[in-house]
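Incident review: delayed structure delivery

Summary: a single-chain prediction request sat in the queue longer than the usual turnaround. Root cause was a stuck worker, restarted by the on-call engineer. No data loss occurred. The affected request and its eventual output are reproduced below so the record is complete for anyone auditing the incident later.

Affected input:
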Amino acid sequence: MPRQEILFSLSRLGYFMDKKSTFIGILLIGLAVGLMFFNAKNAPQPAPAPAVATAPTSVVPVQPAPAPAKASSAFVGEKKIFTLENGKIALRLSSFGGAVESVELKDFPQSQNDSAPVVFNDASSVPALTLAGAPATLSGKPEPWGIVFSVESDVTDDAAKTRTLTLVGSDAQKTVRRVYTVSLDDEGRGATDPYFVRHTVKLAPAAGAASVPAGDLYLSTGMLPPTNGDTANLFLNASWFNGDGYDKVATSHFVASSGFLGLGAHPAHASFVVPAESGEPFQWLATTNQYFANILAFPQTDVRPLISDLAVFPEKLVPAEDMDNKTDLSVVGYAHLKLPALRSLNLDTYFYVGPKEYTRFAELQSADLIEDADAVVQFTSLFGFISIDWLCKILVAVMNWIHDLIPANAWSWGWVIVVMTLIVKGITWPLTMAQQRSAKKMQKFSKPMQDIREKYKDNPQKMQQEMMKLYRDNKINPLAGCFPVLIQIPIFFAMYCTFQTCAELRLQPFLWIPDLSMPDVIPGLEDVRIPFIGAQIHILPILMGATMFLNMKMTPMPNAQPGQKNMFYAMMAIFPIICYTMPSALTLYWTLQNIFTMFQTWLVRRSRDDEKGGNASSGGVEIIPPTKKKGRGKGRVAFN
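Output delivered after worker restart:
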């Protein structure tokens, strides 16, 4: 490369180094503003103050619409409920259809003030795992088989730590047995996970019939209610996996929208049907909300090709006149199988219903039970298209590892955030130390740098060449300040994406924080609202902003122009506002990072100056021209 091109390239690099503060500032503000708009869609809206002060809840208590009992019109007689349970879940099986009326998640209360467990499929018009035939009404929803079931056997295997309940029923054409097996190992993973249910449908011809006639078989997923922390319903959806890719449909598909300036406008759809692709049969179908999920998986490779399509329908949770808010909706999915005439069929399914914990899904995947099960965790992408799933998974794994090491206590997950912050600070400590020392060193050369700017203000290329010479001769690395920030940015956003759906943090308290998965609220001040805004008072974002300001005041910025400093101060004011409604675990992490960085800055400021002559004040540096010798001479730095 010619010498002129090298000099020009170096000059542009020098220009970038000199403008690094502006670059980082613009980058951070751009990311922050983008995240602000993204997060605004998901910000919890202020609710009217209740008569009695209560801590914020994570699951919205939903009252069912005044409708008939689930699928009662297809059945005759008195409905009975059969319970199949272990230490974590309790399945309520209905004699009407032999399906799952509801599932209690015993370890997950509705809120801090409501010890009643979260109930899967509560308030749904259709039980989960309902067996249905082709739609017979204009609604397009499958028609449940009108078969009444009774208990055929109830067996507990102490050696295998399982309990199996078999239900049997029949109609004029077929006899149906439904076999449910749960693990009694409360600490199990994979096939022994207590939230993992094995379910088999056994079809046989009715007495006197040669075969079960061909027809349609629909199998439903059940549904989950919306949560307070997800008012935009980002995580309330139906999703599926066909071996090639993962996709989903949200409740917004079933709500009319005018779009943005007309773009994306659509009517309220009555259903959503996904046909199977050739050679890529569906492997599972799931419905999820922010913290919980159910997965209906089909492990038999010879049965998967029978699934012709998936159908998703909206589920109304309140009377129709109140349907102006899409959080009043949930979704129910159906797998549609085209069955030929057959003498018998054993349809095996796996049914997971429980928390969206990445470690559990990873175990289901590693045991070859449900492929890509971890996709239902739904780590959000930055601005909808930048995926950092790999970093989110690392963070979750590290958090669970730390939690296993910490003695069990009420604040254990809060201490996990503290330890995680210390680990991240330990990783970035050398880079931050280099940044602080570089900034301190550059502070001594602020006067010579300003002189160069003034002298060559009309010749930017020459200015950058002189700046680079100053940096090179005095061993200054202006880029040292970029690296800690560039490392922190993806970690911060990965934590944001992780904490959005981290079931482990739900309802976990720490200090005055009642729920690490929600913005912090001071006990006793739940009803206090900010005038004209209506938002609750959250202390952590304010502390985060204060520590950001103090941290910036302590960090020297000798190379920053007034405009650049103003940009950083503007970002510092915007950032706490953006984070105001984010999970308190995230603002706790960032506040602790600021405090640890302030301590590190204090250590650097107290340390002895590595340069000759000790500490020098700004302007106490003189650049001595190089002596004229043969070859290249080097400038010397003298301190007054």
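Verification: The first strand starts at residue 81 and ends at 85.
Action items: add queue-age alerting; document worker restart procedure.
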